[in-house]
Each structure stands twice: as C-alpha cells, then as structure tokens.
Specification:
Number of domains: 2
CATH class of the largest domain: Alpha Beta
CATH topology of the largest domain: Rossmann fold
Number of helices: 8
Strand order of the largest sheet: 7-6-5-8-9-10
Shape: rod-shaped
Structural class: alpha/beta
Largest sheet: 6 strands, mixed
Radius of gyration: 35 Å
Order of helices and strands: EEHEEEHEEHHEHEHEHEEH
C-alpha cells in the first residue's frame, strides 16, 4: 500500500493513529477555583504543558507508524560508469565436452573431464564477469537450438549462477550458431542504447550458414550496433582460423573458417581470438576486458529502504524528554516538601 510516497507493509496499524490524541484528553489536573483572579498568569506552565502533550503524541504516533513498517519504494537510478553491454553466447554442443587444446587425436577421447572445454569456459568466464562491475550481461547458450537463458541484467549473481549451471550435464550433437547469433542480437531490441554493445561468442566450432541466415544476421547486427568477439576454443592446436601456406588440405573448407570469413564481411567491429591453451584463453579474455571500457549509462536498482528505524529513534528521543521532565518534576516536588 502506497501513501505519501512510502510503501506501508502493515498498513492496518494506521487505524490506531487516533490513539496519538489521548494525551490531549487528560483532564485529571484541572482544578475548580472560586475566583479566577486568585490564579496567577503563568504562560511558561502552559507552554510546558503543551510541549509535554506534543511529545507524548509524538511518541505514540511514531510507534504506531513504525509498526506499520514504512519503506521507501524500490527505484531505478542511472549513473555514468565504464563498461559495456555484453551478451555471452556460449556453445553447449557435445564437442564442448571434449578436452581443451589437445595436440593429437588420441588426447580427445576423454569426455566431460575437468579439462573439458565447457568447464574451462565456465571458470574463465566467471572471472571475466567478476572483474567488470559496471557491465550489463545477458546469456544465451546453444546447441541444436539457442535459448535466451538470461536477459540483460546488472545482477552479477544471476549471470554467474547461469554460467555455473550451464556447465552441468552433457551437450547435444548439433550446433545452430545462426539461431544463436540472431537471438543474441534480438536481446537488444527495444533496449535504450547505453554504450558499447558486444556479443561474446565462446565456441569450439562453426557452421555453414545459409544465405538467408547471413542476411538476417548482417541486418540485425548493423541495426543494433553490435560488435562480435569470438573466443575460438581450439580442438586441435595446429589448426588456425586464417589459412596458412602449409595447411592440412582437410582444413580448407571447415565450418570454423567459413564462419570466420563471414564475420569479417559484416561491417561491424569483429575480432577473433584463437585459444589453443589455457594461457591463450586467459589472454583473450584479458584483451577483451582491456578494450571495452567506454562511458556507459549504468542503471542500478535501489532496494526498499526501511524508515521504521527513524521513527523509533524519534519516539525514543521524545520519550527521553518526557521522562526527564517527569523526573525533574518529581525532584522539584520532593524538594519543596523538605
């Protein structure tokens, strides 16, 4: 219930507020005199009496209002920070359960171990997010379908919990990067442009995209003013995204290179980081962290702020003054009868 700009969580206590007027109905000190001229004019006593009644009213009223539990409502405020709006686009296909950065085919037999690509991705992404307090993060994971698990938020606990949960279980066999790229861009639809926007793709593979998919992705990424960073978790340390002179002929038309070539034609900021080791993966995230600290409008949610403690302190102060007055009166009467 909202009254005078405050949210009252126990508003039924407010019906007791008339009790605060009780001190004004105390007439037990009234005296009847035969002739009013015998009563001296004493304005100080009148002021004292009014003050005591006001203080007693303040004590009762403050206690009743405190019981009603008033709180300042939750509100959103904006401030200028440094950071970016980042969609973490994480591959959850079955290949991410394979060991990270092996040098030969035999090393890729173990599945889902502590050195799997998805667990490595989880650990380093968590550190990356913790080091960027002003960033706004969203999360999309994909295998055969893309799922928007978490919309853009400043809540770091939410994004960290989502990343940790994503490392559980095993992935599916297919990969649909086209759908994932579209859903990542669509997260920004209807959003106020606040500053640097990034899609951070963490994947160990690519996909051959249809012409229709390419056009949709190109249009969305230009309209939303997005940049792409691809941290490519290499399954084989010898293979690179860029074609080289002494390449294995089997690598010439692999989906990863096709996707890399497509990203370069998007006419949006794009950079690929080839992570062939834990050190290279850490360096890639560190480089991204350094590059994107631009001025950003940060929206923060201020939680409910209780005002009951202020009322309780006010009641205590008024009660102390009333108590001190009664102690002084008792002392004065006792002194007068000695």
């Amino acid at each position: 219930m909202s009254i005078v700009g405050l949210e009252w969580f126990h508003p039924w206590f407010l019906v007791l507020l008339p009790l605060a007027l009780l001190p004004w109905f105390n007439h037990n000190l009234d005296k009847t005199v035969a002739w009013s001229a015998l009563v001296p004019v004493d304005p100080l006593s009148r002021i004292y009496s009014l003050t005591m009644k006001l203080l007693a009213t303040l004590v009762i009223g403050s206690l009743i209002l405190a019981l009603a539990s008033p709180k300042m409502p939750e509100k959103k405020v904006e401030r200028i920070g440094e950071g970016a709006e980042i969609i973490v686009l994480l591959d959850r296909s079955r290949s991410m359960d394979n060991p990270f950065a092996v040098k030969d085919q035999a090393g890729s037999i173990t599945v889902g171990g502590p050195d799997s690509k998805r667990r490595v991705a989880r650990d380093y992404l968590a550190e990356f997010i913790k080091n960027r307090p002003d960033d706004r993060f969203g999360f999309v994971f994909f295998s055969n379908k893309a799922i928007n698990l978490l919309p853009l938020t400043y809540n770091k606990q939410s994004i960290l919990a989502t990343i940790n949960a994503n490392a559980l279980g095993k992935g599916l066999s297919d990969t649909n990067i086209a759908d994932a790229l579209r859903k990542s861009a669509e997260m920004f639809e209807g959003q106020t442009y606040r500053g640097s926007r990034i899609v951070l793709l963490v994947s160990d593979g690519g996909q051959l995209l249809a012409d229709e998919d390419k056009e949709q992705i190109r249009r969305l990424y230009r309209e939303m003013n997005l940049g792409i960073y691809w941290v490519y978790l290499k399954s084989n340390t010898a293979m690179t995204l860029e074609q080289e002179e002494n390449d294995n002929p089997l690598w010439s038309d692999i989906p990863e290179r096709k996707l890399h070539s497509f990203f370069k034609t998007l006419d949006v900021p794009y950079q690929a980081f080839e992570a062939g080791s834990l050190a290279a993966y850490a360096e890639a995230l560190e480089e991204i962290d350094k590059q994107h600290y631009q001025a950003l409008i940060v929206e923060e949610t201020l939680p409910y702020e209780s005002k009951a403690d202020v009322l309780l302190w006010l009641a205590l102060l008024a009660l102390l003054l009333v108590s001190a007055s009664h102690v002084y009166t008792f002392w004065g009467v006792k002194k007068a009868h000695e």
